[in-house]
Amino acid sequence: MPEMNDAFEEIEKHRAQIDEIDRELVALLNKRAGHSLVIRGLKPEAKMGLFDAKREEEILVKVTGYNEGPLYNENLREIYSTILKVMKETPSL
Amino acid sequence: MPEMNDAFEEIEKHRAQIDEIDRELVALLNKRAGHSLVIRGLKPEAKMGLFDAKREEEILVKVTGYNEGPLYNENLREIYSTILKVMKETPSL
Fold first, then answer.
1. What is the pLDDT of residues A45-73, one digit of tens each?
2. A37-76 residues touching B, CB cutoff 8 A
């Protein structure tokens, strides 16, 4: 069944590209966490509370503003809810 | 209070860098979703089921393998659980 093998090979190629994207995503998420931890450390000095609902909403608005699909804004909102939740849980440096 | 203003300015700089990272993250997540949708379209031809628990576990293992911190592996697993869930929910192209 040549078509079946062709389709499988195509899938493998796309999976290899996804693996490459995941490598970049992990690096960026860690870079983001690094900035987030520095900010957390600076907040007491800046007399700012650790949790900032306005900033979280601002992030979600920006993120959906960058969106060119195929993900829907609600998909990105869901991913970012988890990202922002996790960033808050990461222990300080 | 100069220290307070300095700390606030520092925070603003890190937030600007986070905004830049978020722009890249959104682009990468959409690129990932594009490959994911192509794969979904090819699966029937390749006689593969739409859901592949082995591949999902493989992704989580790879992702934590790329991890150099400060995020913990469990943080990345949580983010990726949402990413993989959302990718499955995205309507086909």
1. 999 998 899 999 999 999 999 999 999 99
2. 37-39, 42-43, 45-48, 55, 59, 62-63, 66-72, 75-76
